Amino acid sequence: YTDFHRSLVQAFLARATMTGDQASEVVAAILTAENPSQPVPKDSITSAILSQHIADINEELSKFDFEIRSMRDQKDRSTIWALVNSNPDIIIQGATHHNADEIAFFRRLLDAMFETNNTLRAEVMAVRVNDAIHLNKNPPKAASEEVPEGMHAISSGGLTMKGAEDALKMFVDEGWLEKSRGNWYTLAPRGLLELNVYLQQTYNDRSATPSDEEEDDEDERPAGEKRIKDCFACKELLTMGQRCEKLTCPVRMHEPCATHYFRVHKDKKCPGCQKTWTGKEPVGEAA
């Protein structure tokens, strides 16, 4: 574990996320700085070389419950890397510099995305800007909830409207959330990478599976159906993309993954229930 690895970790600490190209450029710059007489071109840092450097770093970071993880962008499938806390016991991982009111606010944002705005008929998994701001107040029971070790106790009824706006801006700047042109907040790649385990544990009920007897006209999800789903094609977490037209079918795909999948499977049938896949049932803010 050398100064090269330490410099690369510092680069990740200074950014919420890096694309594969950005990370390769940083690696090339660090190597060039170490030996200016032999500049290293960015194009020489292949994905395999980058992955090996990160694997070496992760071996050291694992001692401190940190890890550099990657995922593919849900829209264009480019690789995104982020330094994340790998300890699933921390509720809002890596966010302990926020006070308890801000963390409670962030939890309510997650509840709005993955419970309120994630129904059988509309898997939006996002929250409108105005709705997000109005989640600023702590419910009465929040004052008596146990506060995780290392965090300040909740000492107020929550955030002011201005405090909520400032907190939302911080969450965006830190890479937890992203704000769309349509004025929706969704989890950004860093949030998806770092909170994956938390989301699965919090919003998926694994105690039962959907019954074939459930009717499609039910407004609520069948008991036990997973709210957090993976893409059928790439197996990564999905919060935007396409869904099967059958409401109780769990198959979901990212837009690019669906395009690639049905380029091969030209029958355009859902791989789960065999119903025709139209691509017209969205997951995300379009829902």
Descriptors for this entry?
287 residues; 13% strand; alpha+beta; 11 strands; three-stranded antiparallel sheet
What does this structure look like?
The chain is an alpha+beta fold and 287 residues long. The protein has helices at residues 3-13, 20-34, 47-61, 100-116, 129-133, 161-173, 189-203, 255-264; strands at 18-19, 66-72, 79-85, 127-128, 177-179, 184-187, 229-230, 237-238, 241-243, 252-253, 282-283. The protein has 8 helices and 11 strands. The strands form 4 sheets. Strands 1-3-2 form a 3-stranded antiparallel β-sheet, sandwiched between helices. Strands 4-6-5 form a 3-stranded antiparallel β-sheet. α1 (3-13) packs across α2 (20-34).
Distance from N terminus to C terminus (CA atoms, Å) equals: 47 Å
Question: Helical residue percent?
Answer: 25-40%
Range of strand content: 5-15%
Annotation field: number of helices: 8
Mean pLDDT: 87
Widest β-sheet, arrangement of strands: 1-3-2
Query: What profile does the largest beta sheet have?
Result: 3 strands, antiparallel
Shape: globular
> Given the helix and strand composition, which structural class is it?
alpha+beta
Number of strands: 11
Low-confidence stretches are 147-154, 206-219
Roughly how many Å is the radius of gyration? 21 Å
Order of helices and strands: HEHHEEHEHHEEHEEEEHE
